[in-house]
Amino acid sequence: MKILITGIAGFIGSKLAKSFQKSGHTIIGIDDLSTGYKKNLPPNVMFYKFNVADKKKLFKLKGNFDQIFHCAGQTSVEKSFEDPLIDLNGNLISTINIINFGIKRNVKKLIFASSVTAYGHQSNKKVKEENILLPLTCYGASKVAAENYIKIFSNKLPYVILRLNNIYGHGQDMNNLKQGMISIYLSQALKKNNIEVKGSTERYRDFMYIEDVVNIWKIISRKKTIKNMTFNVGTGKKTKVKTVLSLIKNNFKGLKTYVTSPTRGDQFGNQVDISKLKKKLNYKKFINLKSGLKQFIFDERNSRVK
Prior knowledge:
Elements: E1 2-6, H1 11-22, E2 26-30, E3 46-48, H2 55-58, E4 67-70, H3 77-82, H4 84-104, E5 109-115, H5 138-152, E6 159-164, E7 166-168, H6 181-192, E8 194-198, E9 204-205, E10 207-209, H7 210-222, E11 229-233, E12 239-240, H8 241-249, E13 256-260, H9 275-281, H10 289-305
Parallel strand pairs: 1-2, 1-4, 2-3, 4-5, 5-6, 6-11, 7-10, 8-13
Antiparallel strand pairs: 9-12
Helix pairs in contact: 1-7, 4-5
């Protein structure tokens, strides 16, 4: 296939690009490099530097595409409060542009990287895709709005919406301490041997290793029957912050942690129901947090030595 990936220089976009390129697909990528890095790009990929919110530049791209992987956008909850307009442009305007572009270029499927923050905090229960969306942040609100626009035009552009949980793994931006809970903790541990925890250690999340995310994306991409659907993308397992800290401590000597005030809009807990994911995709075996975290730490230490 010929695949267009927005946000290709970011964590998820670059991992998808490398994997799909190895499988023989032609990859074209867009990224404004505001948070991504050119070094993340796979070799020989056709790359264009601009913001997808810029409609004129987007429509200058020539040719048609089989699928679009829309990963571009503002990804920090904390930053979304600092400047909500960044979310409006990065997450909503860019999506509307991609929808129009996809329709005019006869794209067969749009796969959109949404977020579990769309749900907000909905008590101590596993949330299903059909749950009412009650985002607590500007970031979550922009993702919900983008989802709605995508659904409205589904008769012209088939879609798959992926509500991603807390993704982690080597390749995350370790300098960005406003996005990615595990990468934030690990970055502090590697640099300072202490970790600032913003909020209660009783908070909980569903952590998913990047390799599983890429595998799921591949299944969705190649299955023609999977369209006009929304999926929770996670392991379905609830893990408290204190458990994550304990697992990290097992890999460091003398590591210290201290708790400070929570980030504005931070959800106390995220846990999703993945019954639909298991049934439709038949994806049931996930890399557990202990193994994934150990590999993440090994890869980071190894890359620093190099």
